[in-house]
Design brief:
With 143 residues, the protein is α+β, with helices and mostly antiparallel strands. It contains four helices and seven strands. It has one domain. A hairpin with a 5-residue loop joins β4 and β5.
Length: 143
């Protein structure tokens, strides 16, 4: 998809993919739809919602993604304006990649995004590895 663009974001305070799932499940039940709020709205929002995802960095590695279905104006609890990234609740494991910490979010070009595990390495068994082992192997440069 030529116009597609992704967002890369640190999952601050999240221990692993299971923890992200639990936090998001509670958020979705309390205040649907599932959203991630961010101070700055992406200027390239049209490219992001055209098939883009948010790629979550958990414990120093890109491990999972979620489709961004919309980007709409939102409000923090204190009434301050922000942007709501509306997310598909499905977490899609990706072939892990170590990345350095950064603040805020970054654009991630489609060509630079790690492939989904189901399409990239299922035949090799990577998707069957426990997440903690997969993360350690990624850190060692073995996956």
């Amino acid at each position: 998809m030529p116009g597609m663009l992704h967002i890369l974001k640190l999952a601050v305070g999240i221990r692993d993919v299971a923890h992200l799932h639990a936090v998001q499940t509670a958020r979705l039940a309390a205040n649907p739809p599932l959203r991630h709020q961010t101070r700055n709205s992406p200027r390239r929002a049209a490219e992001v919602v055209d098939g883009g995802s948010i790629y979550w960095v958990i414990a120093g590695a890109i491990l999972v993604r979620q489709r961004i279905t919309a980007i709409v104006p939102g409000r923090w609890d204190d009434g301050t304006a922000c942007a709501d990234l509306i997310l598909d609740p499905q977490l899609v494991p990706v072939s892990g990649r170590i990345t350095r910490a950064f603040q805020g979010w970054r654009y991630l070009e489609a060509a630079a995004a790690p492939p989904d595990l189901a399409s990239a390495a299922a035949a090799e068994g990577e998707s069957a590895l426990p997440e903690s082992l997969r993360r350690e192997l990624v850190a060692l440069g073995l996956l």
